Amino acid sequence: MYLSYIRNPVYGGAGCPECRKQRRADERRADMINRGRILPRELISDVKQPVSGWCMRCWQEVTTPRLDNIRSGQGGCEHCGGKARFSDEKARRLARAWGYEPDPEIPYQNDATKWPGRCLAKGHRCAPILNSRFRSGPCETCAKHGFKPDRPALLYVVIKSTLAAAKVGICEDSPRNTRLAEHRRNGWTLLYEWRFPRGADARARERATVDSWRARGWEPVLDGKLAYDGYMETVSLKSISAETIWAEILSAETTDAEQRL
Question: Residue 155 forms beta bridges with which residues?
C-alpha cells in the first residue's frame, strides 16, 4: 500500500482494512447508544443485525433493536420503544429546555416520532425527534455543521459495480463535507451531482426519487445478505440504468411540504 494513498483522505484515510472495519463498528455502536438509547453488548457488524443489550430508558434487556430502524426514527426497545414515556406536559417542558417549542395543536406521541415546532433561538420551523436531545440540538437549520435545509446542498448519484447498485444521496455543499470521500473509500463511484441553493429542495428531490423506486417494487440492494450505511437509498442497476436514474431526478415532481419546515 502506497503512503500517498494512506495520507489522502479521499482515497484512503486509514491504511489498514481492519482499522476501517473497527472504525465503522465504533460508529454503529455510538449511533445505537446516542440515537436509540440502547447499550449494546456485542459488535454491530450490520445495520440490519438485531442487537442484544440494555435499554437506557427502562434498563430492561433487549434482543431485537436494529440500527437501520433506529436511524429511521423508530423506537429500539421492544419494552418501551414507540410508547409515550412522558406526559404531554412533561414532554413539552423537555422540548423547551432542549431549545424548541412544539406546536400547541400537535400532541406528544413518543420520543421516537418527529414533533413539529419552532426553535427558540431563531424561530425556524423544525420537526425533531425528542430522544435526539441526547446528541444534538433540535434545529438542523441552526446546526453549525452538516446538512441544513436552508443552506447550499449537493444531490448526487454514485454506483458500485460489485453490487450492481446505484445510490442517490444528499449532503452539505461545503469544503468541510466528507460524505463523497466516504463513499469513495467504500468503493462507490460518483457519476452525477447537482448543486442546490437550498438543502430542502435537494432533500425533496431525493425523497421523490427513492419513493418512485419503491412504488415500482424495486427493493434496496444488500451486500450479500448484509445491510450497510445508506443502503435504503439504493436500487439495483439491473432494474434501471444510471442514465435513466439521472434523467428521472432531473424531471422529478416534488412538493413544497419539505420547504415549509
Answer: 170, 194
